[in-house]
Structures
1.
Amino acid sequence: MMYDTIIANGTVVNADELKKADVAIRGEKIVQVGKGLAKKALAEQRAGGPNGTRIIDADGCYVIPGGIDVHVHLELPFCGTVSADDYDSGTKAAARGGVTTVIDFAIPYGDDSLHDALEKWKKKAAGKACVDYTFHIAVTKWDRHKHEMQEMVDAGFPTFKQFMIYAREGWQADDAAIFGALEKCRELDAMLLIHAESSRVLDELIERHHNEDEMKRLGARLHAITRPNFIEAEAIQRAVTWAEAAGGRLYVVHMSTAEGTDIIRRAHKRGLDNVFAETCAQYLVLDDSLFAKPDGHLYACCPQIKKKADQKRLWQGLSDGDVCAVSTDTCTFTREQKAMWNGDWTKIPMGLPGLETLLPIVYTHGVRKDRLDMREFVNLVSTNPARIMGLYPTKGVIAKGADADIAIIHPKRKFRVDCEQLETNCDWSPYQGWDLAGFARTTLSRGKVIVDDYTFCGQNGWGRLLTRKSAGNP
């Protein structure tokens, strides 16, 4: 049987199985997984059979389904500037890190309809994306946008986003809008993603501390002081309450606190299978002591990084299954852009780069430190995201019929993070100087090799826009 590519001699890891096997690819699909496929193909060629099968030797390496980062912001207008990574640099970075699918957010601005927002984000990606992509749709004007959600679901975009904060940007949703959106998602077989922070108390704390004396003394530390853990926890509890009452599927994005993890666990114990929560790589390995450093303002993100106790609880939540995925919330700003704060922490462009380091962070600090096994790792960075976002089994698994989205990683080889060597447009990294394993030696996107020997070799425009039928059905 003729194959285009065979990945040979590796250890194939899925969420439910780890085994020595070869992976055979024809066109864009995986057509067979089993032992001895490469040897058989080579024997057929020597016997005069068809030639041309490319053999990729993965001896001593893990062969995993490509990572899926379900939470990225590329070329996002925000905080008075535009995030530095677009669909060129951002998806090249994804590929280098073994991520083969990204999900961005189409956000309406001004009087945009949901359709307008989607078309604008499609244009950002068209001709640039090097890996596959799709979109969540932000619902920012409930009274208008609620009538447009059916159109988005029909078009293949069944995940919606609301923000409990960002009134200044015109994005904020109140409790009635959130409750209504959850009801609408139940009706449409869709899912609501929620940015959970309690705006009224948050705004009060910001106002109390927004004075020249404290800003001069405390600088970027005020970013953490004004966002204590209860700001997130109270909002998560409220969102879970509305999900339970409305019956709609809820996905809490970028959860950063131990208290939030406890709330999700209690919801699951009550039998709420319509409630999901992700965390991000930065919340697992960074803590708020960084804000006291001279360049502490660089680390401002929203919600902000918390404490080591929160890291520990989040890792436990991942292991227990209460936290279902790890993403990045990538929103890249350069040193020059971050310098816009000029000593006022409320003006820092909030966000961190991270697409290229997602898998390495979770692998190095999860698998290599015995917090996760390899199957759990694959589940958290690929299979669960695919299932929950309506991409499975086309994505998120190495199996016959799935897209040939594959990352090959060496279990021990480490690289020292250097922003100048990364694909991102950012001139700094939160992990600068860290030694990380888990970078992709080889990345395949729908059967095409886009990273070879740790070097990007793909092409702009290869990435395909994905549509989905439903979400929240793991």
Note: The radius of gyration is 22 Å.
2.
Amino acid sequence: MTKKPVGQVTPEERTEIQTLFERRNGLNELAKIVTADNTELYEKLVKDMGETGTKFQAWWDRMAQKYQWESAEGGNWEINFDTCEILLVVP
């Protein structure tokens, strides 16, 4: 797997995706312990996971459009939260 720097985002943009990233991870952890027995909580969790996933993907789509990052077949981007650097990860 190779990682190649392809761009940079602003600290504000970084904070936006970092918040979504942390929320998505928290929801995924919660999903491991919430059962469908608790219908109300389960439905809220599923809805929240869907909305957070959509916002997460929308951020990447918006930034890729704005900055025109290089892409590769089978590759994906990741962000270094410390430096705001965007890396292209290719298997």
Note: The first strand starts at residue 2 and ends at 8.
3.
Amino acid sequence: MSKRRPITSDRSISSHKSEDKEYLVSVKNFLKLNLRVKPNNTKSWLYRYNSPHSKKPKNMSLGVYPSVTFARACELWRENEDLLNQQIDPQVYRKESRKTNLKQSKNTFKNFAWQHFDSLKFKQKENTLVRKKRLVELVCSYIGDVPINEIDSVKMLDILTDIQNKSLNSKGMPTEKAERCASIASNIFMYAKARGFCDTNPVPSVKKEILSHTYGHRPAVTTPADLAILLRKIETLNAEPNTLNSLRLLAMLYVRNGDLRQMRWVDLDLKKGEWELKPQKGQGKSNMVSSMIVPLPLQAIHILNEQYEINGHTEYVFYSNTAKLKYISDNTANKCLKDLGYKDIHCVHGFRATGRTILEGYLKYPIVVIEMALGHTTKDPNGNAYGRFKYYDERAEMMQNWADYLDALRANKDTKQFKYGFKAHDTSNQIQALINELGDDAILKMILKAKS
């Protein structure tokens, strides 16, 4: 058998075919570097050297051809030759480097970020997890591969500032994205710190340096006259029941749109007239309740019975088979209000301001009852927070009275009797109620008949 020609290029490699037994081919001008050709025609690079410590011959694989090209194999040869010249065993060095890289990868911000995220899966709702996942991905795009104990406050300030500058609203003001990223990052650092992988949490010291997000003005109608017009316009909407009923309930219950959209049948007791609610915004916030019972007026129960005929076979009251989260989208009701001409005049969140303002300013209800109905934490003079059943009867009466008041506004009827503490036996009120019921003409005929 003729002597095999040393390899000089990628092209020369193709001339070496597989045989019954594997064989080695040397590489010209690269002592110790060989190409190993196996019977199955697999070709790989082999570095054959003597250990600087034991002088024992060793074989070290440098990868499979053509994934590792001829040029790359020559680069690896030079790197290993440099190590040998420093009395370092290349194979030992590679094993130690892999251990170090593995340890560093386990200590990266990204590793702890996803560990922390996984720990939330059984604690938070699906839509909350979807939002948080996007924020985790955003922060990881900056520092995902950096060891978590090497990230300082200067680095975090640069990141949060950059996120804020890239997420301004149409008026050039900061959105809440940077603040939410800061909160997520802070929780990740706390998670890693509790497990001994970092000494400090650099986020709190820099969070105050970024501009605070503000929602600004939430447009809302706040007078009975304007509310009456809005209620009548809503009834003119040519919208599907899901949308129309959601607007009716928003006006009647003045809960947050996100909570109403995610209303589930399992949380409702229509016989008792109750909705057990865990407000999204109330989770982990001291100024909002984490759980509350919403008394349902008769009108709300009627609307929910209508919804049951439509969506009673699903999990959600406002189920939508076209929506990603399986219930109507955040913009559905707002779009209807804009179509009615209420852009920058009234939005879905504005129903909360409408309810609060009119209940306090016009119907004269006690502020403590209103605040509890809005899901805000309220304390007594001793500083004790009221429980979710506190003032339940008062809230139930107020909710029913409010629903009746809306009906009266919508029908352009007198609303004096809906004021808090109104005396039903007051003669003048009874006369007015009779006039409203029978009409001016009927009363006039009765008076003329009595005189005759």
Note: The radius of gyration is 36 Å.
4.
Amino acid sequence: MGNDGTRIVLTGFMGVGKSTVARHLARLTGKRQVDLDDEIERRRAVSIPEIVKNGGIERFRQIETEVLGEVLASPKAAIISLGGGAWITEANREMIKNSGVTAVWLETTFEHCWRNIRFSRKERPLVKNKRQARKLFDERERYYCLADWHFVIDRGYNSFDIAQKIASDVFSIDAVAARGRRRNR
């Protein structure tokens, strides 16, 4: 895949680091990054936990699909980090595929995600405890593996390392050179 016109979505379980990797990737590539959850909250002027509380998870999923469609319609949105459940909706996967956007699964262990979930200040309406999180993790893996690319997050990798690997493998950008160019501006 070349640098021109390449667009990706990052998927994976909550706490895997999709948003953080996307921010690093945007800096390395100079491409526009959109966090779908942030975009939903911005466009609806209400938090995701409030949407779920007031309308239920089904209503949230409808809004998520609507906003994803709008984001995908903008060719400037080159790096899109999805919420942990966005990829499990078949309509979303089809929309992403039909938009010519490459899906990248950030794959890791449940323990990695759980550690990040526990220490995050972000409210997660679908996860109240480790048992619930584990069940959701196991249910969603069969969908995540449908992504075009898989990046396994090994022990010792941080979000910047993953962004460098994606910049190189997906965007065909030498991440070290790109980082140097950005510093010299």
Note: The chain has one domain: 8-179.
